[in-house]
Design goal:
There is one protein chain. By secondary structure, the chain is an alpha/beta fold. The chain is elongated. Helix 2 packs across helix 3, helix 15 crosses helix 17 and helix 16 crosses helix 18. Strand 6, helix 9 and strand 7 form a beta-alpha-beta unit. Helices cover about 50% and strands about 10% of the residues. The chain has 18 helices and eight strands. An eight-stranded mixed β-sheet has the order 1-3-2-4-5-6-7-8, with helices on both faces. About 10% of the residues have low confidence.
Length: about 425
């Protein structure tokens, strides 16, 4: 266990002190205990390093709003612990951290396993919507539905104690840190960069994973130069918990046989893996297939111009569905206006550092009420929720607008906002 400053992570070690280090990264809403069933066997050959995400498992609630920031905190923690080079296995959000390590810090990474991972997790709208629900209702609705996302129905029915453990694990997470992690996943997209990942990689997925399933796994394998695919039958998203023996066998086999030599950085190499026992074959229940690598991109894209910046902000604030409808409806007559909106409104004004997005949402709602622009009020009420305003704060904005913009205008605005808030903050059944 460790004391945890704001720029590091809560962690623990298991296994022999002189063994090579293998890191196990958790999924959103879980703690390092999701790897409990893997640790005894892995710790026979590796020094296991597990960490908790901010606000998870009793860790201090210092929110991190991007995968890059979480990765930086992990590296700062490893530096403080004297760990320079390591193998890494991460599940879901933990897998995103693994991809960030492979792309930005390859000299630290000897071997990689990506479990229930993706180069892009769903859509930004899905995760921002989840943040809106948590901000409004707390984590209980997310906690109650977590077993449906994490486990197959048969496993959940047969293992009520584990199912309840999963619910309580989410329920005790800090809401602000959970929301920040949702924002991190909403912004994460490394599809165009996969060809630059060079560490030997195992991509492991449950056959019944409805969150990041075999299709996403195959995208990773096709894009990463040195990657293999393992599909675990009878498992959903939290496959290390649902099929612990199969996952353990796959990780032992991968990290025993695929450990890249260190870069010439002057650091001391870890002990060789030549003496480690190698399984004669992969576990028979789990197929491991070689997939041909994709070509390396010729060049990385250049810096974004105002349009690209504006389009990114416009999607983050209004949502992909809204922006896709607006751009899809543009034609030769209205296309220039959509271009103007994206470049000037979103790429210049909304990108200015003088006001944060919450404040800009307050101003925008007031201006729309004053002008009677109810056709835009619904989309900007949704935007205000995404930007971090609570329903109570939106109510206060509209009450304030009633004084200065007129009661009839505010009355109509309340009707519009009430419907949007009810739709956006009602958890799925």
């Amino acid at each position: 266990m460790s004391e945890t400053p704001a720029n590091t992570l809560q962690y623990r070690f298991d296994g022999p002190e002189d063994a090579p280090v293998l890191i196990l990264g958790p999924s959103l809403g879980t703690t390092w205990h999701m790897w409990d069933r893997q640790v005894p066997e892995l710790a026979e050959q590796w020094r296991i390093f597990r960490f908790d995400l901010p606000g998870h498992g009793g860790a201090p609630a210092h929110p991190a709003g991007s995968v890059a920031e979480l990765t930086g905190r992990l590296l700062a923690t490893l530096d403080a612990a004297g760990v320079q080079r390591f193998g890494y296995a991460g599940c879901a959000l933990g897998g995103a951290i693994g991809l960030e390590l492979a792309l930005r810090h390859p000299e630290r990474l000897a071997s990689l396993a990506l479990v229930a991972a993706s180069p892009r997790f769903g859509t930004a709208d899905e995760f921002r919507q989840r943040g809106v629900i948590v901000r409004t209702n707390g984590l209980d609705p997310i906690a109650r539905t977590s077993p449906d996302r994490w486990f197959t129905g048969s496993f959940a029915a047969a293992q009520p104690a584990i199912t309840e453990w999963a619910v309580q694990m989410v329920r005790t997470t800090d809401p602000g840190c959970y929301i920040a992690a949702c924002e991190a996943l909403a912004a994460f997209d490394v599809r165009a960069e996969l060809g630059r990942a060079g560490a030997p990689t195992l991509v492991l997925v449950g056959s019944d994973d409805g969150v990041t399933g075999p299709a996403e796994a195959r995208t990773l394998v096709a894009g990463i130069r040195d990657a293999r695919l393992a599909v675990v039958p009878g498992a959903s998203h939290l496959v290390p918990v649902e099929q612990p023996a199969a996952v353990t066998d796959l990780l032992v086999h991968h990290f025993s046989t695929a450990w890249q030599q260190p870069y010439d950085t002057g650091q001391t190499a870890l002990p060789s893996f030549a003496a480690l026992p190698v399984p004669l074959a992969p576990p028979p229940v789990v197929p491991v297939a070689e997939i041909a690598p994709a070509p390396v991109p010729a060049a990385l894209p250049g810096p974004a111009d105002r349009y690209d910046t504006g389009l990114k902000i416009r999607r983050e604030v209004l949502g992909d569905a809204h922006v896709d409808r607006a751009l899809g409806a543009a034609d030769a007559f209205s296309g220039d206006f959509q271009d103007f909106l994206t470049r000037v409104t979103w790429g210049e004004v909304w990108d200015r550092p003088g006001l944060d997005r919450r404040t800009r949402s307050c101003i925008t709602l007031t201006a729309l009420v004053a002008g009677g622009h109810l056709e835009d009020l619904a989309s900007h009420t949704r935007a205000a929720l995404r930007n971090g305003l609570t329903p109570d704060e939106i109510k206060e904005v509209l009450l304030h607008a009633a004084v200065y913009c007129g009661v009839p205008a505010a009355h109509r605005a309340f009707r519009v906002a009430q419907g949007v808030i009810a739709e956006e903050t009602t958890p799925d059944a």
